[in-house]
UniProtKB/TrEMBL annotation:
Residues 73-138 form the Transposase Tc1-like domain. GO terms for biological process: DNA integration; DNA transposition. It holds the Pfam family HTH_Tnp_Tc3_2. It comes from the Eukaryota. This is Transposase Tc1-like domain-containing protein. GO terms for molecular function: DNA binding.
Amino acid sequence: MPYENRNRISVTLEDRIKAVTMSQQGKSFAAIGRELNRSKSCIIRIIDRYNETNSYKDRPRPGRPRISTAKDDRNLVRLVKKNRTHVLANQWKLSNGKTSSSSLVRKRLLANKLEWKVAVKKPRLSTKHIKDRKTFCKMVKSWPLSK
């Protein structure tokens, strides 16, 4: 997938190869740009980068690479929707075999507009609660129907 900046879309590898070979054949920057439907400054940038690095590929992008893939993120969302009462940091298995931290789980869930908090289990009814509910139901049973 080509890198997309806010102002420009990266040039495909095929276009870069074409631009460099045309330049080596002696064509002008403007002629190459017209043929590839790119600006003259874009063609100059491609050829200068090729002359610097002797490669057609993009330079590495800044920033730390993601530890989880899109498939891993979908798997996490599925796990959360399936059971909301478990802590997921130790249960979420990444496809690359690495472990995930609780902060990574929290960030991925927030990105998918989900809560990272664990749902609280409801308390069980005690025998006193059960008895009180039965007496209330018997009392309500004797009430007259409202019209």
